[in-house]
């Protein structure tokens, strides 16, 4: 997926989605020394060190393989067009957590210049399970299309990275970067005109449909719940607690907020337990 500035900590993400019987509480103001890179620590250390993160990635690719087999073997499947899968790149098949760790170590926020330099290094490693799955898809005659919001001027470096880790179909025909708008719909449609798209994989809802691109976090959740059956079948989601369109929704779509305002907006989205009762 494309990178938007800054990130929410894993703890904030878990609290926002996991607590029950909770009530919205006024946010505590962040300290005067608000550092958004510090708030990225828990998400990044989880991505880089936890077995759970690796397990979720393997689980996603194992599920993708089962669904691919089921679709290819189903009677009456679409044999008039060659089968294909569409995958996002960042935090879907390539792991960029080392860049996130650099932001933390240097007390930096995301910036297009530093990101571009990271991309040019072409040193991102495969997500756990990604290479085995993509190789398997290729062995079954399924083409892999990489639909990414990395910029067009990052195509050469990204393709070099994809080739270095041994991914199939790492060529200009199968690589569709962002050229103007971030909406991936036209690029997905281009693939669908010539191929039977069996499934899509990504870490951001926009990797599946622009219909999920809503202005608020609540609206995005409602859109997901309305299409619950698609997830785990046609849509396979990879975990990414570090960044994404979900963060933009927390800011009301306004990336120009100050660090302090962003930190406060994050806290305001926590649904906080009222606390233990006193006797």
Strand order of the largest sheet: 6-5-2-7-8
Oligomer: single chain
Could you tell me the radius of gyration in angstroms?
19 Å
Content-based structural category: alpha/beta
C-alpha termini separation: 50 Å
Unreliable spans: 5-25
The string of secondary-structure elements, in order, is HEHHEEHHEHEHEHEHEHHE
Which percent bin holds the helix content? Answer: 40-55%
Tell me, rounded to a whole number, the average pLDDT: 90
Shape: globular
**Strand fraction:** 5-15%
- What's the helix count? 11
The total beta strand count reads 9
The description of the largest β-sheet is: 5 strands, parallel
Overview of this structure, please?
The protein is an alpha/beta fold and 279 residues long. Helix content is 42%, strand content 13%. It has eleven helices and nine strands. The protein has a five-stranded parallel β-sheet, with helices on both faces. The protein has a two-stranded antiparallel ribbon with strand order 1-9. Strand 7 (196-202), helix 9 and strand 8 (235-237) form a beta-alpha-beta unit. Helix 2 crosses helix 4 (97-105). The longest helix has 23 residues, at 51-73. It is globular. It starts with 9 loop residues before the first helix and ends in a 7-residue tail after the last strand. The model is unreliable at 5-25 (pLDDT under 50).
Give a topology summary.
Elements: H1 10-18, E1 23-24, H2 41-49, H3 51-73, E2 83-87, E3 94-95, H4 97-105, H5 112-121, E4 125-126, H6 130-139, E5 143-151, H7 155-164, E6 175-178, H8 185-194, E7 196-202, H9 217-226, E8 235-237, H10 245-250, H11 259-268, E9 271-272
Parallel strand pairs: 2-5, 2-7, 5-6, 7-8
Antiparallel strand pairs: 1-9, 3-4
Helix pairs in contact: 2-3, 2-4, 3-6
